[in-house]
Amino acid sequence: MRRLLFMTMLVCWCLMAGAAEKSSLHQRAEAEAEKDNIATARFTFIRAFEDYANKGQMAQSVECGVKATALYYKENYYQEAFDLLRRIDQAIVASQKSPSEMATLYYQTSKERLQMYIKMRKPESSKDQLKALENHANASNDEGVKNDLLYTKAIYYYTFGMNQQGNQVFKEMAQKLTASKEYDKVEDAYKTLIANGRRSNSASMVAQSYSSYMAWKDSTTALKYADEIKALKKQISDNEASIADKDSSLTTRQVFIVGLLVLAGALAAALVVGAVILLRFIMLTRKQKKNIQLANDNNALKAQFISNIAAQLEPTLQKLDGKQPEVKALSDFARHIQTLSDLENTMGDEVEQEDTLIPPFCESLAEQIRDQVKQEVTVKVDAPKMSVAINREYVSHILAHLLQNAAIYTPEGGHIELSFKKRGAHTHQFLVSNTGSTIAEEERDEVFKSFREVKDLTKGDGLGLPICKQMALKMKGDLEIDPQFTKGVRFVLELHG
Fold it and tell me: In the sheet where 415-424 sits, what is the strand order?
């Protein structure tokens, strides 16, 4: 019975620990956001939101969805932001969580709507969202959510000039947050109140707010000093206890030291030898560091050298028999190396775009592989009749490569589809999917890396997908493998107009 209870507790702990960890998609989204790659971060946050929702981890799902929303309206894509919040609310309904848990999740989406309305200066819509926030906070039974509501209400009132209501809420909020030592939130609210007085040219309001702010600042400074003194006293007490323990153990150690001194003479010769060995090791380590730096420099030079060689080889290869597999493979490799080098060197350059009618564009690409597929393989195009501004050269190259790969790997009787989806006013996707074997999760990122393995060039150089990835990034988009597609492989090319 005890063993069963222990195993049950262990399983629960593991599940809780797993739920608390951030998924790889979540971590990648945060990393892209730190680099200010807004479009890629937003796309990855949305994928993380969907992935978490499918696993029932709604707290993390809503967190990622709200972050993606903020990245939409950061670039003034308000319609896309509101659409995404509706999707998040639908996911919350589908999760069938407890009423209090759902209220806590709804609070986050309603707060994001309120922040958008405040940014757009829409007081009536902001007021409606504030009422919704109050209902969700009361239903959540979460003290943290209720404290956040007071802070949000104070900012709302001060933003729209309702200073009397703001003062009432502010007083209650300041008392609660100060008691819980959340000084930064109180200070932000004070600064908002002072700024509001300056905007309304109310000298008395500014003076009163600043006086209250300074009085609160002095009191919190005293509280902080008291906390620091208390922490220092505890640290001193802990250090004294540690010193006492060390004094006790030191006496015991002295007995061993006497014995060790007896062995010191015998070890002296060994120490001399060890010192010589150590000096040699230090010299070797320094030499290795220099070698590593030299190797890195050489790799950069090698990359440039290979690119130059590729460019110089092309005229010579054109004089050889192009029908020979080895000659053709070497020629393709040289061309791919040059293309990849050019993309990396011009990554920051703007790409030209032109309006393109999507259905004939997609049909022409699909037509190129119809005679290359295996028996009874269907090739389908699903594209709405609309025009989009794209870089035809890069998009054509990417889709043609993906379709050619699909023709190779789709078995007899399979299905290949090229489709186009409008994801927002400024976001659209090309999707290439095929039935057959899938790509393992651990290999989905690896296929976009160049030179990841040594290959027989007559069987391909492995640079096709890395080149496509670089082209997508240069267009301020991205190329990924859809993890939700389980009937084969689906590549997603997302672009932003």
Answer: 378-382, 415-424, 427-435, 488-496, 478-481
Predicted TM-score (pTM) of this structure: 0.41
SS3 445: coil
**Three-state SS at 381:** strand
DSSP 8-state symbol, 390: E
In angstroms, the CA 43 to CA 76 distance is: 16
What phi, psi does 76 have (nearest 5°)? 65, 25
Of 428, 405, 406, 424, the C-alpha closest to 416 is 406
Going residue by residue through the chain (497 aa), what tens digit of pLDDT does each one get?
444 434 434 434 443 444 458 999 999 999 999 999 999 999 999 999 999 999 999 999 999 999 999 999 989 999 999 999 999 999 999 999 999 999 999 999 999 999 899 888 888 998 998 999 999 989 988 888 887 888 788 778 877 878 777 777 777 777 777 777 777 777 777 777 677 667 656 665 676 667 777 777 777 776 666 666 777 777 777 777 777 676 666 666 666 666 666 666 666 666 677 777 777 777 777 766 665 565 555 444 445 555 555 555 666 656 565 567 676 767 777 787 888 878 887 888 888 999 999 999 999 999 999 999 999 999 999 999 999 999 999 999 999 999 999 999 999 999 999 999 998 888 999 999 999 888 888 888 888 887 766 565 666 678 889 999 999 999 999 999 999 998 899 999 999 87
- Cα(274)–Cα(471) distance, rounded to whole angstroms? 56
First to last CA, the chain: 63
Strand-pair partners of 416 = 379, 434
Give the bridge partners for 471, in sequence order: none
190-to-11, 49, 143, 173, 203 alpha-carbon distances in Å: 47, 35, 22, 11, 15
